[in-house]
Amino acid sequence: MPYFPQGHKDFNELRHLILLYGDPAKPWTRGDLRYYVAHLDQKGEPDDWLFDSFLFLNVKAGTGRDYSADINIGSTMAGEGNFVAVCSPQPANKGDWEALVEFYLGEHGALRNLDAAIGECADKIGRPYGARRNVVLMLPYPHITQGSFGALSEGGGILDFSTKRHNLAKATEERLAAERWLVDEYVQRFTAQQFKHLDLLGVYWMFETIYRSWDVDDHWLLKELRKHIRARGLKFLWIPFWSSYNVHLLDDYQKYYFDLAFLQPNYMFYKQGKTIAAAAHAARQRNAGIEMEYYLELNEPIAVQSERHARFREYLNGGVTYGYMSDAVCAHFQGARALQRMHMHTDAREREFYEDICQFVTGTYRLKSEIEERGAEGIGRVALSVDLGGTNLRGALIDAEGTIHHRVSERTPSSKEEILRRLKSTLRGLVDEARRRGAHVHGIGVSTGGRVDFDAGVILDSTALLSDWQNIPLREILQLEFQLPVSVDNDGNCAALAELMLGEGRAASHFITLVLGTGIGGGVVVDGKLLRGARNAAAELGHISISHDGPECSCGNKGCVELYASGSALARQAKELVKSGAIRLDRNSDQDVSAEALADAARKGNAAAQQLIEQAGTSLGIAVAGLLNTFNPERIILSGSLIKLGDMYMRPFRETVKERSMAVARETAVIVVSDLSDPGLLGAASLVFSRGAVTSGSS
Ligand code: BMX
Ligand code: ZN
């Protein structure tokens, strides 16, 4: 699913919505509101349009009573927002709600001033702003501690929101009646004012979660209230804090409660547990918008106060990397008028953020780096990277620059269930290690043998190297388990991506990678882009047949180059020679004749062993000659454990390529050995740090 898109015509082209928290003691003036209507130059003069939509919300009434009911009491161990619904002992009443209407829609209210500010800026900017500007007004929470709200009309009964004197159904109806009254009041007063530049887009539900219990039924209340709002042509908006509970409420929000919801990343407020990548991913999955969160200072102790700049940079960069700057509707939380105060701040960094935010809102912000606040051992953000091969299952923590910080490895188990179990336990170990090092986990990248539907994160099928490794929704499985964005790709493709970003592929637009391990993995880059094919199954280069009547391959073909030139091929052939007595190996045991043991024997002068390895090199050369003629690459980049065989393998390989490829192709291509320590693992990590981690979640 995509984000909730910008410019939706049913939402009057809403793109960026600024949250304007009001204080009865400090009403919104025209001067204040100019900061949100337009970008202001150094002299404070408007020179470009800024926000298209304005959300007005107040937390407390002038009497000190509460409109809202969320209380932030810190974060849970898992880094979730620990907001709780504590109904205020001093809930706002009818008089307070009327004051709110006055604050927004009175003769000198916020909207009058907003309308005037837009008019003023229009004169200065000299360009029209497009669609009319949107206004969204808050609906206070009807606290269930409110036993005496007041009457909606003269002589009407005093509303009671509590279940002290009547049952839940009645209490909820009275809460609903109050909300309906307010919505109608907003509509009437708004219409009467005949603003020049403003449209009333909708109303906003203040309470950041939805409860239902023996004394509260917000589910029913919201469904009914929504009908009322819709009947007036308005939209119902919501921006809940991040918690698993709320994220699940967002799953079906459009069906039940709201017309538009924005997800709060809350990455600003908690040390652990959250990432921008995960928030972007969760928002996409739910057709939601994203909330930007910045502030200069907040009263509550914020866990990441010292990392404020670095974290906010991630919100901004994430807009580009994960596309939400231009693809998603964005709400902008700014604490206490931060944007306004950043404009002329004494700290140049704050002024720079002011410009960056304005660029973000106009869709012109470009990636920037911020000196990272680092964890105890100097690591910032890491990917949990896993490489599942025919022989080994390996894992690592890798940072955005491609530095590998921690590695683990074990033998690849032989059944699908066992592989999944070990994969999870490897990842769990990596999560712990990342935590221990104070690193922020950005996501999970998996490099695996087999055909992988990269877009869906599903393993489609495999050869016998990974038995029964097919039809596995691996992304979904791992996402559920770890609550992190997950990307999965074929190991040959991962290696090619690593070369493209960090290795020998950086200087080439057309290249081919071959990973010579248990099997032969392949990746093809054309015009600087990975060739995926119609179903992401391209570049199975190990399964190019070089012999029409060769041995059968578990891929369905015969005589695949992998059966002659890979580690498993060498081991199998060596075993046959050992059995027949043609060669004797030092380190042999019948079960475990490895390519390495064969190489040992060859180095010691065993002619049969040497011949086997040479034949392997020649076989690979035949396939690669064909690849040169097919793709005309600039480079062939080799990696994998067989590289260690050195000249014995490489010389016949190079010679065969030369002999058998066409002149032009041969003259263009340079054969190089990768200088990356681990292309598969690095490529899996690059899926996490590049857009791949989330763009692919949209299907
Ligand atoms: C096989 C095939 C390829 C893979 C290659 C290298 C499976 C399970 N694997 O040709 O997808 O790229 O092996 O894999 O179908 P490795 O086991 O050497 O890492
Ligand atoms: Zn094959």
Quick synopsis:
With 699 residues, the chain is α/β, with parallel strands linked by helices.
Outline the structure in words.
- The protein is an alpha/beta fold and 699 residues long.
- The protein folds into three domains: 9-362, Alpha-Beta Barrel (TIM Barrel); 381-494, Nucleotidyltransferase, domain 5; 504-675, Nucleotidyltransferase, domain 5 (2-Layer Sandwich), CATH 3.30.420.40.
- Helix content is 38%, strand content 19%.
- It contains 23 helices and 26 strands.
- A hairpin with a 4-residue loop joins β16 (392-399) and β17 (404-411).
- α15 packs across α22 (679-689) and α19 (607-631) packs across α20 (647-660).
- The protein is elongated, with a radius of gyration of 31 Å.
- Bound molecules: 2-acetamido-2-deoxy-6-O-phosphono-alpha-D-mannopyranose (BMX) and zinc ion (ZN).
- Residues 543, 553, 555, 557, 560, 562 line the site of zinc ion (ZN).
Tell me the span between the first and last alpha carbons: 6 Å
Query: What is the CATH topology classification name of the largest domain?
Result: TIM Barrel
Identify the CATH class of the largest domain.
Answer: Alpha Beta
Please give the CATH architecture of the largest domain. Alpha-Beta Barrel
Structural class: alpha/beta
Helix content: 25-40%
Mean pLDDT: 90
Note the main sheet: 8 strands, parallel, barrel
The general outline is elongated
Radius of gyration of CA atoms, rounded to a whole number: 31 Å
Quickly list its features.
19% strand, TIM Barrel, binds zinc ion, 8-stranded parallel β-barrel, 3 domains, Nucleotidyltransferase, domain 5, alpha/beta, 699 residues
